[in-house]
Amino acid sequence: MNRKIALITGASRGLGKNAALHLAAQGVDIIGTYNSRADEAQALVQELGTLGAQAVMLQLDVGRSEGFAEFAVRVEQALQQLDRPRFDFLINNAGIGVHASFADTTPEQFDLLMNVQLKGPFFLTQQLLPLINDGGRIINISSGLARFTLPGYAAYAAMKGAMEVLTRYQAKELGARQIAVNILAPGAIETDFGGGAVRDNSALNAMVASNTALGRAGQPDDIGGALALLLSPGAQWINGQRIEASGGMFL
């Protein structure tokens, strides 16, 4: 069977859902995770099925690394259901946003961000390595905020900067297995992330558009399409790179 399988964390909504739809349209089957909304997850399974893709959705809290070993067992079971021993692509997409100035960030906020945005993808990827095919690919998610600065995102951006460094180390160390690792950095996107501020706050949306070379805020399709592109056959020689998909924000 030639169909690939992508495991996408946070696949039930937002950018993860959009990536799943783009990949399914390209003939990729999906193992996705959701945190709390089982109804959204099952609705996505049905939607992916209309595109000809097999899909399994699994519950996972990426902020609780102590549950990753058990999750890996459930991934193995899902792979059996899909009649494959391993999967091909891992997209570490799940995340949260915390808006707080550097001076006001609490230890609790910092720890929450670290657990979800850094510790989670670090140890989840480690746990899943035996289930990734040699020659597979991993995509981590950063943010334009790791390049440019906007007040209120010091801790969030610091975690994303750490993920960018981690990506290079993963690419170096997993090269022996021919696994390519890259990190995609979206700009400001119109989703419900961070309370949907970019989508719903007209003043913020206008500010983003005025500071973006292409003259608008990003759409989920912009990121889902970029992720699918990085996992396409023609992108296999791209490795250890930070790719920003921001429409040219703050150039």
Q: What does this molecule look like?
A:
With 251 residues, the protein is an alpha/beta fold. Helix content is 42%, strand content 17%. It has eight helices and seven strands; from the N terminus they run βαβαβαβαβαβαααβ. The chain has helices at residues 14-25, 38-50, 68-81, 107-128, 154-173, 197-200, 202-210, 220-230; strands at 5-8, 29-34, 55-59, 87-92, 132-141, 180-186, 242-245. A seven-stranded parallel sheet has the order 3-2-1-4-5-6-7, with helices on both faces. Helix 5 (154-173) links the parallel strand 5 and strand 6. The N and C termini lie far apart (44 Å).
Outline the secondary-structure elements.
Layout: E1 5-8, H1 14-25, E2 29-34, H2 38-50, E3 55-59, H3 68-81, E4 87-92, H4 107-128, E5 132-141, H5 154-173, E6 180-186, H6 197-200, H7 202-210, H8 220-230, E7 242-245
Parallel strand pairs: 1-2, 1-4, 2-3, 4-5, 5-6, 6-7
